[in-house]
Backbone:
């Protein structure tokens, strides 16, 4: 494969989604040719009862179907999260639906959980040789009514449980209609209670406990964050991932790209996501670990997430702009 410094200009001449698809295909076919990054000694940490070789993970959304796990693993990640996956395949929202804001080192996406369905993802996982920590991020199909959302999450949990190191529950994407309503106190308590009950049943039948992590939005006030913290503490959810993309456009210059609807990720999200992280960590009072994502495009920004109380970090958009060097930099900064 081409070094990223050479590949990026070529990829950035293409529209963003075409470049993404080519990258995943390239990693799937030729990722074994990448030089393997081996984490330095002394970086291991234990979170959710799992032993992570380092604190830097890949966020969900890059490899939605688990097609490039082995190639991504060679970049040195301490863990990889794939998905979001839904029970049934779905095309997602109409194209174009992924936009670069190059000067801001950001993306706007309204993908809409486009994926090949949970069965295809599991086939890809079984075919991968990676044996590190694998998170599987689950969601609901767009045509499933919000009142039946728990059915989709439970079905996905049942299916992915045996293959996952942990399962991330995505209720915070802005690109599936009404999905964020699941963060409301009434909906959230019902959903988490159902998931914890099923987790206990699956742990018994599989003889293995697989942690649950809840992924939340950055567009939350202090009362909302406290409500979520109360719910996850009450239900003993194993971790919270903070945060998903934002619908806010704070600090972006006016222009057709910045006005695109969807979730904003990348550098402009950093301050908002880190503020939510710090508020959440305080509300959780050390009882539940937090995994931080949102705006990490340098080692110092990864370290800042740990300083705000996170125990692990995840990157995605920064990887698009910086390439594999960002993984190395963040690993070193979070030792």
Residues:
């Amino acid at each position: 494969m081409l070094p990223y410094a050479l590949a990026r200009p070529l990829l950035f001449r293409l529209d963003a989604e075409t470049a993404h698809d080519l990258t995943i295909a390239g990693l799937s076919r030729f990722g074994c040719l990448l030089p393997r990054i081996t984490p330095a000694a002394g970086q291991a940490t234990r979170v959710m009862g799992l032993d992570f070789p380092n604190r830097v993970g890949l966020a969900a959304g890059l490899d939605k179907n688990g097609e490039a796990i082995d190639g991504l693993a060679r970049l040195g990640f301490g863990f990889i999260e794939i998905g979001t996956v839904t029970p049934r395949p779905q095309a997602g929202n109409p194209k174009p639906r992924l936009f670069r804001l190059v000067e801001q080192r950001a993306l706007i996406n309204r993908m809409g959980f486009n994926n090949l369905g949970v069965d295809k993802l599991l086939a890809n996982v079984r075919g991968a040789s990676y044996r590190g920590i694998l998170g599987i991020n689950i969601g609901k199909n767009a045509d499933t009514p919000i009142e039946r959302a728990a059915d989709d999450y439970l079905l996905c949990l049942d299916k992915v449980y045996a293959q996952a190191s942990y399962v991330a529950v995505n209720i915070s994407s802005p690109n599936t209609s009404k999905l964020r309503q699941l963060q409301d106190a009434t909906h959230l308590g019902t959903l988490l209670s159902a998931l914890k009950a099923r987790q206990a049943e699956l742990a018994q039948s599989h003889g293995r406990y697989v942690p649950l992590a809840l992924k939340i939005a950055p567009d939350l006030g202090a009362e909302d964050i406290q409500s979520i913290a109360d719910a996850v503490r009450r239900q003993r959810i194993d971790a919270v991932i903070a945060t998903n993309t934002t619908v806010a456009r704070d600090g972006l210059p006016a222009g057709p790209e910045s006005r695109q609807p969807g979730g904003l990720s990348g550098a402009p999200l950093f301050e908002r996501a880190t503020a939510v992280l710090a508020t959440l960590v305080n509300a959780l009072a050390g009882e539940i670990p937090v995994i931080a994502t949102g705006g990490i495009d340098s080692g110092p920004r990864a370290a800042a997430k740990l300083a705000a109380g996170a125990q692990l970090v995840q990157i995605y958009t920064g990887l698009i702009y910086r390439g594999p060097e960002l993984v190395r930099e963040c690993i070193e900064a979070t030792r």
User: Anything to note?
Assistant: The chain has a mean pLDDT of 96. Residues 35-333 form a domain with the TIM Barrel fold (CATH 3.20.20.70). The chain has one domain: 35-333. The first strand starts at residue 45 and ends at 47.
